Amino acid sequence: MFGVRLPRYRTRSGMFDDLLAAHIRRLNNAWPELIRPIQFAVEDVPPSDPVPWELEPNVMSRLFPAAHGMPARIVLYRMPLQSRARNRDDLQWAIRDELVVRVAELYGRRPEEIDPDYQW
Fold this sequence. Notes:
alpha+beta, Zincin-like, three-stranded mixed β-sheet, 3 strands, globular, Peptidase
């Protein structure tokens, strides 16, 4: 029996979603005009078929530019990100890095412009 506020209550996927939501809120506070129109999603694993415009597919995340009335979408792949992280802090920084890189890619900016703390 665990209460909802106790650490063991949260699943790994729930913790991932919480970290992602916190980073999206942080970026939205800094860049509301850039972040608000983007849809964000989490999938467990990437599909096996890369999209045609990707020369080198990234298994951590994918950017789908806006097209045909659909907003731009950024999808993060939970299991590859979690498998490369040694602890919660690593996972937090990996999520942040993927988000910042994809937002910068979407708008044709450098990641450092989107998040000054970004270091690759």
